[in-house]
Automatic annotation (TrEMBL):
This is alpha-1,2-Mannosidase. PANTHER family: ALPHA-1,2-MANNOSIDASE (PTHR11742:SF89), MANNOSYL-OLIGOSACCHARIDE ALPHA-1,2-MANNOSIDASE-RELATED (PTHR11742). It comes from Neurospora intermedia. InterPro entries: 6hp_glycosidase-like_sf (IPR012341), Glyco_hydro_47 (IPR001382), Glycosyl_Hydrolase_47 (IPR050749), Seven-hairpin_glycosidases (IPR036026). The lineage of its organism: Eukaryota, Fungi, Dikarya, Ascomycota, Pezizomycotina. Pathway: Protein modification; protein glycosylation.
Length: 612
């Protein structure tokens, strides 16, 4: 017979044993539950998502991709995207000037990069910002729905007359350009509708005899690659690869420098040559897209092609009439940069400079020549092209702003022209990105002043919208020197019909351009300064008020008018691809398209960056 102590011991021993069994049972149930969740996750998750690419798509030596916060549709929202090959296969066309592939993606782990995006760890998505985000999305949906109804599969919608336009080969430029915006805005049904149409485009089906190398690359190739990076839909990468093979034929010239146009018959016959007076931005702004295509497919041809252009730029950077920069127009056939005297960050040259820091980011810092070229070019820009507008004292105290002008090389001097372009508003973001990546704090400050300058210029006109081209009365001397108001100079040079600071508005159009909001968005994400969002909202409301039509939104002929504006019946694809995307993102949580995870091409298509 057991004593009470023995009975007590036995009871507690049995109790502990029972608890261990129950704990073990709960543990087993927990493990089983986790296993079920993981099983469902991998069954639902697309096999070729951006982070885990299939072996065939991701070469063993490609840099690891970032792990971004990705928007994903629910399983019920997913649709099958079917690839249909084009009726002509450009890989079967003979290369008449073949070369040995001597350039391959740099190998090794990407270098640690300085953070580009501000620390938003305490960010709150407040109701005001949510409502602004919804308002931008509503404007996008109105534009997109009118395109679907009146111009489906055409390049553009004419937003007044309600007809479709063919402007870029007839390959649905608006449709392809808007793919990633549809995804970012979580418009899943429309994304899959458009993705299926894009994956079945036939590049042979065109009434044109040639394709614009630059525009087709940034809009179509860039749009397809970005949509793939976001969605993981393999059919979109297949279609991008098919297009890349067609555009690769543009490099089939005696010196492997592409011309402005890819003439289809000339390419087949092997008689293409590089241009002798081509815009410098055209061949020199293909690098981001062709590099990303190589990263995703492992095919080194694309990277080899653009690296030959990079080597040309590096070799000639100090051979121009303003050493350190490249002129507006270049003789690519003879590979000379000393024949043109005009220099700009605007039309004809803009994205050449834009892509230098962006290529550094996309290649994980493994190609040092891009930083070297960017630093050298920006030294010249800050010396000869930045300027401050002369403003009355009260205005100047409120607005510490900069603009970028042009420079012309003369035999005995360099003339500086205080002419601003809407196109050059991208420079705020470029200075900011370079400043962040290369730890140049002054350049981040310059970038912010440039971005704010463009925002100020919007508010300076009766419509609240900035013109295409304008001239200003600049401060004398350096852009960072004191700038007192000079009434006599203003009376001699300023316009009596415009706000003080302006000399003229040479081209008064607004064509739904994105560059101003692009830089304001980027500088907001880089600095976290909330007033930039208020500036963006003011710009957005002005644009909508000035451009709205019965169907969508149109370019206007004159931003200086008071009252109703004249619509020019044009809505280029960048309205949906860039302008509204940047407006949407500035009012979105900063985790959406984080700048440390993505880099934008010049058409606002985000590409995944490699990570250390």
């Amino acid at each position: 017979m057991n004593s009470s102590a023995d009975n007590s011991f036995s009871f507690f021993s049995r109790l502990r044993l029972f608890r261990r069994k129950m704990a073990s049972s709960r543990h087993l149930r927990l493990v089983a539950g986790v296993a079920c969740v993981l099983l469902v996750f991998f069954l639902v998750r697309p096999f070729d998502s951006p982070e885990i690419l299939p072996t065939a798509s991701r070469p063993h030596n490609s840099p690891p991709l970032a792990e971004p916060v990705l928007l994903q549709p629910s399983p019920s929202s997913r649709r099958k995207v079917t690839f249909k090959p084009s009726s002509f296969d450009w890989t079967k066309v003979e290369q008449h000037f073949p070369v040995e592939l001597k350039h391959k993606l740099p190998t090794g782990a990407p270098k640690p990069q300085k953070p580009v995006q501000h620390d938003f760890s305490h960010y709150v998505h407040d109701p005001v910002t949510q409502n602004r985000q919804k308002a931008v999305r509503a404007v996008f949906e109105r534009s997109w729905n009118s395109y679907k109804e009146h111009a489906w599969l055409r390049d553009e919608l004419a937003p007044v007359s309600g007809v479709g336009k063919t402007t870029f080969g007839g390959w649905g430029a608006t449709l392809v350009d808007a793919l990633d915006t549809l995804w970012i805005m979580e418009l899943w049904e429309d994304f899959y509708l458009a993705a299926n149409a894009a994956a079945q485009l036939d590049w042979q089906n065109t009434t044109e005899t040639a394709a614009n190398m630059f525009e087709t690359t940034i809009r179509h190739l860039g749009g397809l690659l970005s949509a793939y990076d976001l969605s993981g839909e393999k059919a979109l990468l297949d279609k991008a690869t098919e297009l890349g093979d067609m555009l690769y034929m543009g490099f089939d010239t005696p010196n492997r420098m592409p011309g402005f146009w890819l003439n289809f018959e000339d390419a087949k016959r092997g008689v293409q040559v590089a241009g002798t007076n081509d815009p410098s931005a055209s061949p020199c702004s293909l690098s981001l897209e062709f590099t990303r295509l190589t990263q995703l497919t492992g095919d080194q041809r694309y990277f080899d092609a653009i690296t030959r252009i990079t080597e040309f730029l590096e070799r000639t950077q100090n051979e121009s009439k303003i050493p350190g920069m490249w002129p507006k127009l270049i003789n690519f056939r003879e590979e000379r940069v000393d024949g043109e005297s005009g220099f700009t960050l605007g039309a004809l040259a803009d994205s050449l400079y834009e892509y230098l820091p962006k290529m550094h980011a996309l290649l994980g810092g493994l190609s040092p020549q891009y930083e070297k070229m960017h630093r050298a070019a920006m030294d010249v820009v800050t010396k000869y092209m930045l300027f401050r507008p002369m403003l009355p004292a009260e205005e100047a105290s409120k607005h510490d702003i900069l603009f970028v002008g042009d420079a012309f090389a003369k035999p005995d001097r360099i003339d500086r022209v205080a002419e601003g372009q809407h196109l050059t508003c991208f420079t705020g973001g470029m200075f900011g990105l370079g400043g962040k990546l290369f730890d140049i704090n002054e350049h981040v400050e310059i970038g912010e002043r440039l971005a704010r300058g463009c925002g100020w210029a919007y508010d300076a006109f009766p419509t609240g919208v900035m013109p295409e081209i304008f001239n200003m009365v600049p401060c004398g001397g350096s852009w960072d020197a004191p700038c007192p108001w000079n009434e006599e100079k203003w009376k001699a040079e300023g316009s009596k019909n415009l706000k003080k600071g302006f000399a003229s508005a040479r081209d008064t159009r607004y064509i739904l351009r994105p560059e101003a909001i692009e830089s304001i968005f980027l500088l907001y994400r880089m600095t976290g300064k909330e007033d930039l969002r208020d500036l963006a909202w003011q710009m957005f409301e002005s644009i909508v008020n000035a451009t709205e039509t019965e169907l969508a939104y149109s370019a206007i002929s004159d931003v200086t008018v008071k009252g109703p504006t004249t619509k020019t019946d044009s809505m280029e694809s960048f309205w949906l691809a860039e302008t509204l995307k940047y407006f949407y993102l500035i009012f979105s949580p900063p985790s959406i398209i984080n700048l440390d995870e993505y880099v934008f091409n010049t058409e606002a298509h985000p590409f995944l960056r490699p990570k250390p």
